[in-house]
Amino acid sequence: MHLTIFLFLIGLVILILGSNFLIVGASNFAKALHISPLIVGLTILSFGTSSPEIGVSAVGAWKGEGGLVLGGITGSNILNILLILGICSLVSAPVIKKRIIWLEIPLMIGISLAFWGMAATGTFTRIDGVILFSALLLYLLFVIFQERKGEKEKSPPPSIPLWLQILFMVGGLVLLAFGAEMLVDNGVKIARFLQISELYIGLTLIALGTSLPELVTSLVAIRKKEGDLAIGNIIGSNIFNLLGVTGIAALVKPIEVPKAAIHFDIPIMVGVAIATLPIFWTGHKVSRWEGALFLFYYLLYLTYLILHSSSHRLFSLFTTALLFFILPLTVITLGIGVYRHLKAKG
């Protein structure tokens, strides 16, 4: 078992290295083609930070591990909001542009609901994959068209020669494929050893591992006082996961959706997406106490998964406390915040 865990971690390291190589190679290649920094950021870097999820999901779908695939995608989206946004808000409460509030967040919520509807059928078919991936392309074209209207910035020259750009891209893709294979194979072995479903491994270990690029990118942006970049990276990553990662995985092979994901984890993901709306709306920023609340809920979610997967005797008591005390208290707290904001504006 120790060897399996070691290989799982090695696979994760290789996956992240492959992602970084791909980003460096592709972004410099784009500069060589005189593609603007804005377009590079909206397309190549978005793809690059989500490439670990793409690699794991494509390999998982090919191997028929639907639980691991859906767990990774759903868990990653929950983690991006509750953990990464929570940590970023504690470091520095970011102020958000109205565009993110009125376009990207409602879009993320709408796509999350559509994702839930597709999942409820029990399978993500190849037709679903075509629909999702086509929707991603339309979204990227719309965003690029909107942003290029006021764009003046020219592309800087590449920092590495052409042969090295190609080497980085090819090497990055090879490392991604190899790392994803190791991560999936050993993740399944860990799940079977612990006698839990692959869904739980996807929701926890794989979601955390594949979200590391988003965490690092967002923290760097927050440190540089670029709150919009950090929040845009988080929201954009969630949209990319639902449309791009799921779409590519379903095109590789139809994905069977575990019932547990349909009835609990995907609804939680949708609820977390909806919960961002009033928080961003009140004052156009995420305060430190709201970030702490997100972190608290991520810990609660992890606790729920651990207790449920191990059939712990405290699971029933924990669920009761969650439903009848913690959730209502949070709704009341957020409601008071919205009321105060509206009263102050009035």
Mean pLDDT metric: 82
Major sheet strand order: 1-2
Q: Note the overall shape.
A: globular
Structural class: mainly alpha
Q: So what's the oligomer here? A: single chain
Radius of gyration: 20 Å
What's the level 1 CATH class of the domain at 67-159 and 193-312? Mainly Alpha
Contiguous helical run count: 12
CATH superfamily of the domain at 67-159 and 193-312: NCX, central ion-binding region
**Helix share, percent:** over 70%
Architecture overview:
- With 346 residues, this protein is mainly α.
- The chain has a domain at 67-159 and 193-312: A middle domain of Talin 1 (Up-down Bundle).
- 83% of the residues lie in helices and 1% in strands.
- The protein contains twelve helices and two strands; from the N terminus they run ααααβαααααβααα.
- The relative contact order is 0.20.
- The model has no long low-confidence stretch (mean pLDDT 82).
Descriptive keywords:
A middle domain of Talin 1, 12 helices, mainly alpha, 346 residues, two-stranded antiparallel ribbon, 83% helix, 2 strands
